[in-house]
Amino acid sequence: MSVRELVVLGTASQVPTRHRNHNGYLLRWDGQGLLFDPGEGTQRQMLRAGVAAHDLNRICITHFHGDHSLGLAGVIQRINLDRVPHPVTAHFPASGQHFFERLRYATAYRETVRLVERPVAADGELDRCASYTLQAQRLSHPVESYGYRLVEPDARRMLPERLAEHDITGPDVGRLQREGELNGVTLDEVSEHRPGQRFAFVMDTRMCEGVEALAEGVDMLVIESTFLDDDAQLAADHGHLTAGQAGGVAVRAGVRHLVLTHFSQRYDDPAEFARQARAAGYGGELTIARDLMRVPVPKRR
Question: For the whole model, what pTM was predicted?
């Protein structure tokens, strides 16, 4: 059975705390693993969360601030030490190529794995495979930053009662799916549209068009909420969002499950982030991220 879940490795902004590691998020999507923003300590957090280097297929860096990328050196070396048998693709802002190279070759090690560099230079599609398309969208932060969006292709859901009405069983079901018609019965008569699942990852940014575009219609939105609403001006000055702004985005975008993360160490009560997201009108499923928690992607609509 396929697994689609978010494994939270770290949730702190800028500096780690006693209870929060630097950023790190693994999205398990069927047989693939996408690691987002491996901050310092990610390799150890992977061990604690039961995530192996072999689980990684992609690494997606939103921007090159240390709390989102300093763990990259250790993760890359672990991938090579463990001789991961498949290529690993790395996406990152093209303007940070020199930072990526410094982290990739921070110390001496033996390269045993093919690491494919796919820098992001513009909005749009980055890659496509059988189970999803990966997209990027520019955000608004003091350094170049991109958010990521994963989109599963739409499909058809076969309706057993309709198939039975037309006495369509066994291999004939597959034939109907392939050809679109069987003995005068069309695929539309015995199936319904099934929208693909969507996931978005939005880190350090002010409110901008990119945030709205990434969040639109997703099943799960992982989004920074560094500040509380009372500090909205501070958030804007430093290129960040508040909990209320994140909740407002989720309302407008029709997000099913909102995951708030990347919290400033100045706040002691995580529940206040949830209260402010709710006050903005968000009524869907809401998670305040904690290190090492696992959050299932909502079931298909």
Answer: 0.93
Whether residue 146 has pLDDT greater than 90: yes
At residue 190, the pLDDT reads 83
Backbone angles phi, psi at 198, to 5 degrees: -135, 140
Report d(CA 176, CA 167) in Å as an integer.
Answer: 12
CA distance 210 to 5: 24
pLDDT in tens, 183-201: 998 889 988 888 999 999 9
Neighbour-count burial for 229-265, b at 16+ CB within 10 Å, e otherwise: bebbeebbebbbbbbbbbbbbbbebebbbbbbbbbbe
Query: Which tokens sit at 278?
Result: 């709710």
Task: Out of 30, 37, 67, 237, pick the active-site residue.
Answer: 67
* 67 included as an active-site residue: yes
Backbone torsions φ then ψ of 69, nearest 5 degrees: -150, -10
Q: Helix or strand or coil: residue 169? A: coil
Would you say 243 and 273 are in contact if contact means Cβ atoms under 8 Å apart? yes
